[in-house]
Structures are given as C-alpha cells and as structure tokens.
Specification:
Layout: H1 5-10, H2 14-31, E1 38-39, H3 51-61, H4 76-90, E2 100-103, H5 106-112, H6 114-117, E3 123-128, H7 132-140, E4 144-149, H8 165-170, E5 171-176, H9 189-202, E6 205-209, H10 230-233, E7 234-239, E8 252-256, H11 258-271, H12 277-289, H13 293-313, E9 327-331, H14 334-338, H15 343-354, E10 356-357, E11 359-360, E12 371-375, H16 380-397
Parallel strand pairs: 1-10, 3-4, 3-5, 5-6, 6-7
Antiparallel strand pairs: 2-8, 7-8, 9-12, 11-12
Helix pairs in contact: 3-12, 4-12, 5-7, 13-16
C-alpha cells in the first residue's frame, strides 16, 4: 500500500514516537534490571475527577439510552449546561442551539475544524510552537501553513505585526491557544483581542483552543468569548480533560459563531456521532455541581511546580517559571548544545538511561526546538524521584 501524501506529511507525531520509546523501555525492563518508568511526557493528570461526575455517569450507564447512538438533538441538556457555565464563568450569554457543540475531546475539534473553512491550497496560520493537532488539522485540510513563531525573549507573545497586510488578507484561518501548551504561559486577554481584531478586519476565522482556561496559576486566563467579533469570526474549544480530570472520557465542547458551529456539526456528522449520554451526564454534573473543582487543583500544581523547579535548579537546570499548571518548559542544557545533541536525542537518552520520559519540544514545531516539556502529573515524591534520576544522568553526561 502507498500511503496518501497527507499521511506522509503528517508523519509520526511526537506522542506516537514517545510511545514507541516507552514501550521499548518497558520491554527491556521486563528482561533487565531497569528503573520503573516515570512518565512525565503526557498532560494526563493523576488527580481524580469530581465524584459527582462519576456518580452521574454510573447512574446513567445502565440506561438503554446510554448505549444507543446519540445524535445532535439528544445533546441539548449538555448544551444547556454549557450555557450556564459560560454565564457563570465569563458573564457571557450563548445560544445552546446555535452556538454550542459537543465534541469528543478538544483535540478532535481542532483537528476537524480546518475542514470546515479551508479548501485545498488555502492559507492557515498556527503558532509555533503549538499543540500538534493544530498543524495536523491544517495538513488534513490540505492547507498551506504559515507559522507565527513565539519567542522566549518576548514572553512567548504572538507578534501579529510580523505578518504583512497582504499575508493577513491571504489567510482564511488562524489557530492559537492561551494558556499555552507547551510553554505553560497563561498569556493575556489583549493578545486575543488583537487576534480577533485582525480576524474581523481581514476576514480570518479565529480558532482559540482553551482546555487550560481554569488552570492559570498566575493571573486570569484569556478567552475568545470576551473579545469583540467572536460571534461573527470566532470559535473557542473547551475541554473536561485537564481541570475536571476526565481526559480518558473524551469530553469537550465548542462555543462560537453560528456559521462555524453549524459547519463543524456537518463535518462531524459525516465522521462520528456523539459521546454516550452517560458520559454527557457526567459532564453536565461537572459543569453544574462541580464548578469550583478546578480551583482545588491549583495549590497542588503550584507546589509541584515550585518544588520541581527548586530541585532542578540545585544542579543547574534553570527554566522559566510557568504561570499555567501542568507543565515545566525546560531549555536543553548548554552542554547538550555543545555536543550537538538536540531535544529529541536528549529525551531519548534520558528515557533510556533513567526511565524518565519527557516530551521533546520540537514535536510542537520548530519553535519548540531546543526545549523539553515536563508534565507535573505525579505527586511531589515521584517528581522528586524523577528529578533525582535526572540529576545523576545530568552529572554523568558532561
């Protein structure tokens, strides 16, 4: 079989490459005396979901409706819960029938959305670095991709002036996301205001991927729903995976301009139905009865961040202080650069020699080259164990 050009252009994603390395390590561990794997490569939290959400799922699970296909009309109770959450969280009124859509994870939404507005050869803009599905969705839509490089010297702020008016006029779609993965910086509302201003003036659809909206450790997370123009040119994606700790349940939603929501609904109608009504009941319970649940995790992540940074700094690995929970964004050390060791090679060597898995930053785009992402998804004791192994590897490597 000859794979399609789209598939070839996608390549093996960073999480797929990492998964193969982890499986290889686990196989070798089964026949040799190696350290247990400590996986800090995925933003899959160890913290529990709200009990009220799990109880709602359990109660609904044995209903015959929960095992049946779920079409859009049956998601109205979920969409009404989203309306209430948007009003409480942002003070914004949205229409459950025209401006809200259930998703099977926000990654699914961002990957499918470019199919709604782009024809083959159209131009789309992504941040660099950015979450891999942003690029993947553009490739699947056969788009021409422009990159807006986010630079550490500017606090990872997008410089919209780096594109000419002619480039803005050429664009049809822009995808961004703050709080930002992988750099773990919250960002500012003014950045989204400017993005939406450009979108309206140049007729560019603005997609904002916002699964970390409730995980700001410093400041207030920005949202597209507080910008002028989102009801004409914007769509925002939210997730239950991070703040409500329901990643494996694949629950998310989009809120946006009616034509964009309708278009994404049509694409999804050709690809999938919706999540089980039982899972939707869990999401509804989370929105309605566990509104404060995300706040409970912030002090846990803050302690993990601070203690991990201190432990790394003790042997000379200095990193920017993240303002968003869940990740550290680590520059590869000078000694690695001097030995021409890039981030992919460094993460592979670290896993092989210590059993600690991190994510190479280049997997998020060339703008992430020279960085590693560490996910704070284990208790402090395990994180300090991992960093102790890293310290031994660090000292032996230069």
């Amino acid at each position: 079989m000859t794979p399609s050009k789209r598939l070839s252009n996608l390549g093996v994603g960073v999480f797929g490459r990492n998964d193969r390395r982890k499986q290889d390590y686990l196989f070798r561990r089964s026949i040799a005396n190696l350290n247990p794997l400590i996986d800090l490569s995925l933003g899959s939290t160890d913290l529990p979901p709200p009990p009220v959400a799990l109880s709602a799922i359990e109660r609904a699970l044995f209903s015959s409706e929960s095992s049946a296909y779920c079409l859009h009309g049956a998601t109205r109770s979920f969409r009404e819960a989203v309306v209430g959450w948007c009003q409480r969280r942002f003070g914004v009124k949205v229409d459950p029938d025209r401006e809200v859509l259930l998703l099977i994870g926000s990654q699914e939404g961002t990957a499918h959305f470019p199919l709604t507005v782009l024809d083959s050869g159209d131009y789309g803009l992504i941040m660099d670095p950015s979450y891999p599905s942003h690029r993947a969705g553009m490739i699947l839509a056969d788009a021409k991709i422009e990159h807006l490089v986010l630079k550490p010297g500017f606090g990872w702020r997008p410089d919209f002036n780096s594109l000419t008016d002619a480039q803005w006029d050429q664009l049809k779609l822009m995808i961004m996301g703050f709080p930002h993965n992988p750099t773990a910086q919250v960002g500012e509302q003014s950045w989204l205001d400017e993005a939406m201003f450009r979108g309206v003036n140049h007729k560019v659809v603005v997609v904002h991927d916002n699964p970390y909206v409730d995980l700001a450790l410093e400041g207030e997370a920005p949202t597209l729903l507080r910008t002028n123009g989102w009801r004409e040119w914007g769509i925002e994606f939210f997730s239950f995976s991070k703040a409500w700790c329901l990643g494996g349940f694949r629950l998310a939603f989009a809120v946006g301009a009616e034509p964009l929501i309708s278009a994404l609904r049509e694409v999804k109608g050709a690809i999938d139905f919706n999540q089980s009504l039982a899972l939707q009941q869990g999401a509804i319970a989370a929105l309605n009865h566990a509104y404060e649940w995300p706040i409970k995790s912030l002090n846990i992540y803050r302690e993990r961040r601070d203690r991990s940074l201190r432990a790394l700094e003790l042997f000379g690995w200095h990193a920017p202080i993240p303002t968003m929970a869940l990740y550290l964004w680590l520059p590869i050390p000078a000694w690695a650069r001097e030995q021409n060791i890039d981030d992919e090679m460094l993460s592979a060597d670290l896993l092989e020699k210590t059993g600690v898995a991190l994510t190479p930053g280049s997997g998020f785009g060339s703008g992430g080259s020279g960085w590693l992402r560490l996910a704070l998804v284990h208790p402090v004791e395990i994180l300090e164990d991992a960093i102790g192994r890293i310290r031994s590897w660090w000292n032996a490597s230069h």
